[in-house]
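Subject: Sanity check before I submit

Could someone independently write out the structure tokens for this chain? I want to compare against mine line by line before I put it in a report. The sequence has 577 residues.
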Amino acid sequence: MIQYDFNLRDYWRILRKRKILIAFTMVSLGLFSFFFAIISSPVPLYKATASIKIDRSSQMSGLYGMMMPGFGWGQTGEDIQTQVAVLKSLHIVELAAKRLNLIPPNLTSEEIRGNPRYQQIILDLKKRTDAEQEGSSNLINISFTSEEPKFAQKIANTVAQVYKDERVLEINRRTFEAKKFIEEQLKVIKQKLKDSEELVREFREKNKLISFEAQSSNLLGQFTQSKAIYEKAMADRIKIQMVKRALDQAEVKPLSSSNSFYLDEASSLYKTLNDKLVQLMLERDTLLLTYTDQYPQVLEIKKKIRETINAMRGQLVAQEKNLDKAVRDLREKTDGLDDQIKGLPEKGLELARLERNVKLNTEVYTLLEQKHQESLIKEAEKIEDAQIVRPALEPLIPINPPKTMETAFVGILLGLILGVVLAFIVETFDTSIGTIEEVEKFLGLPVLGVVPHVSSKEIRESLGEEFASRMQDDMGERVSRLVSHFAPHSTLAESYRSLRTNLNFACREGDIKTLVFTSATPREGKTTTVVNLAITTAQAGVKVLLVEADLRRPVISGLFGIDQTPGLTDILLGNCE
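---
Independent answer below. Compare away.
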């Protein structure tokens, strides 16, 4: 009995048998996925990115200011993250919107927040603006997402530029404010100097005065000298008061170039205490970069600062008392000289007064002009620790491209898998008999042999050139049907010999001499099988009687080249022996 297992060939047979179902499932699911991807494709979004580099400043200008968090040397990751938060703040986005005229530039922040439409514009820009540190570097990437690539590029670059400008303005704010104040004072003093000079010129022209007598020169010189000493004492007193106010705030304000406590006119002990105070404040500000106000070392330094300030204040109070006495003495001396000068001719006194005003205004103007030049130099050397190293370019590819082909491919793949599953499910529910096991199980009988289905064309091609001249008309059909005779070494002939062997074993068990071949429908291979089985049995040396009982379409006589009459019907009717 032939044993037959379900192998890969049977799986392939099922797939070929159900190929239309599989193809239909693949195409249907693929087309559905394709059209679904087209319908559900998102609106393309474009992302533009600009990069800003935060430099670690090495400039000596503004050293104490650079030691403050977020500015200067040795910036940490926390400082960079702080700048990232500043970049994404409403203030920066609001300035960028003003610069792009998305909102009126002349509106204040309060007016913008009071207008729902402008407020919505700012919030929308902030929502689509992002900033993040690039790895562990000091680069910050500023990104903006929009449906319009040019707008995304413009916003990203504008936010970067606004941040850079605000950063420069914040770091150099004291320099800019000082320059502005000096320029305003220059205008005032310049006008005063011009007015005083014009008064002197008019007075001289009106009174026709060229010079004064020598006797008034000495008196006027003493008066001028005393007045200058008096004004210097008053100026020193003002400086002491300013330093005292600075000392009052030294405990709470960080050390910077704007709160200096140095005083040229102070004693050596005060200068020593000043150096000590500057050192203590520098240590305190350095610790506060890492620790809180309640840190023990910070508290200890604050205590020392407080003691040093009290000592310095005591020195200033003593010096101020001495200055008060000197001022009183100078005032008395100046009043005396003034009384003496009043005895001079009134015109000379008036001219001297006018010239003194011109001189004072000239000195003040010269001093302010010098300070203005210094401020211009500082402004030219302004600290810029933010640089735009990579401006945003116009994005060409959206960040959310539609995945139409990918979705369609996945649909086809799923359709293939689903089609294969459906093919095996349909095959499982198919009640027709298709395998050898099913035949044996259904009939309860063993299968004695399996003859592969080979077409006449394939048989002719396998016979080759040996029978090429015979492969015409009826002779070609005969040769292809009698393969066991014409091609005894072929695989097909071997299958008939295997069938013959199995029949011999089966017939011996039941002493069977006669075999009948039939089938359910025509053209299923009865004639071919019985003819080749008869040939292979005869080739084994056994006598074989082959009876053709197909009265509807007899073909055996034609295959062997013999007459059809007399036939089986003639024998049964007794028409011949």
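---
OP: Matches mine. For the report I'm noting this point. The first strand starts at residue 46 and ends at 54.
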